[in-house]
Amino acid sequence: MDVSTREQWMTIAEKTIAAQPRVAEQILSMIKGLSAITDGFSVDQMEHAIQTATRAEREGADEEVIVASLLHDVGKLISVPNHPKIAAEILRPYVREEVYCMVAHHQDFQGRHYYEHLGMNPNLRENHVGQPWYELAEKFADRWDQKAFDPGYDSLPLEHFEPMVRRVFAKAKSI
């Protein structure tokens, strides 16, 4: 790299920008891959993701929040224990800070609904009181995410969300 030229880097940048649509397509493939993960839940993780996004949309969430709701558990393809951070880092360049934080910390908020059964502290969300994104994370966990395991729920199809995913991942806001 230290022997490269400005012209070479301009070509690389141009080709990278032109290839940006592949990001959304890879994200959609990852969401589809969640269909292979059930881990004892009543629906697979793709259906859970779609239900979460459907609930967010039906309550009037904006497009970044809806797409983040769809992707919030995509890190489970790699690792369940740190899946929130994996998903959040995928989203980070494309969404505003409060949406990133909603996903990055969603497990602390979700724990209120089941951590006691595992001998864990169900009040980890209290560590985030006062954060500007607290209310969004609370709404996400309590009204959308924890309810999104209903085999009879009338979810929108994944195809409904595909244009949103493509728009959100069309261009990074930051690097």
Which assembly state applies to the chains in this document?
A: single chain
- CATH topology-level fold name: Hypothetical protein af1432
Number of strands: 0
Give the overall shape. Answer: globular
Could you say how many structural domains there are in total? 1
Count of alpha and pi helical runs: 9
Radius of gyration, CA atoms, in whole angstroms: 17 Å
- Major beta sheet summary: none
Name the CATH superfamily classification.
Hypothetical protein af1432
General description of the model:
- The chain has helices at 6-18, 21-33, 45-58, 63-71, 83-91, 97-104, 106-110, 134-145, 158-168.
- The protein has 175 residues and is mainly alpha-helical.
- It starts with 5 loop residues before the first helix and ends in a 7-residue tail after the last helix.
- The protein contains nine helices and no strands.
- It has a single domain, classed as Hypothetical protein af1432 (Orthogonal Bundle), CATH 1.10.3210.10.
